[in-house]
Structures are given as C-alpha cells and as structure tokens.
C-alpha cells in the first residue's frame, strides 16, 4: 500500500491510499472539499498509479457521483462493509 498526502501549512488536508491499482481510500478535509483537492488526488491516482477500481458506500451518492465524474462506473457488484450492515458497491474505469 502507498499513501499520498496533500499538506497545507503543515496540516494534512487530504490523502489517497493505493493498493496496487485499487484506490483503497480517499479523504479530503471538510474545509477543503469542493476546492479541487479531491479532483487532484483522484487524477493523480489514475495517472500515476493507474487506479482502475474502488469500493464506495452504496448510500454515499455524492461520492459515487464524484467517482463517476472521474470515469468510474458502478459494476453491479456489492459486498457488506466489515463489521457493519452497510453495503459497498464496486466501481471500475
């Protein structure tokens, strides 16, 4: 796994975690959302790591829309998130 961080004044404002070509995690500080940080992170993940798949919470429509705007499509596969009753959906590019 490899982590890439975005810092602002020494504070982490966002990061991605890659596991091969799977985008395992993406996070953007709520104060920096809708400012291009997530766009830059996902673009970096796809261009530098060849990110081609990820899992997202099925109920998180905002995140799924974000991923779709970056070329990912819902595959129809889903699974339960560990230790929860929430479903994850698979997206691929």
From TrEMBL:
It comes from the Bacteria. GO terms for molecular function: acyltransferase activity, transferring groups other than amino-acyl groups. Signal peptide: none annotated. Pfam families: Acetyltransf_7. InterPro entries: Acyl_CoA_acyltransferase, GNAT_dom. Residues 1-92 form the N-acetyltransferase domain. This is N-acetyltransferase domain-containing protein.
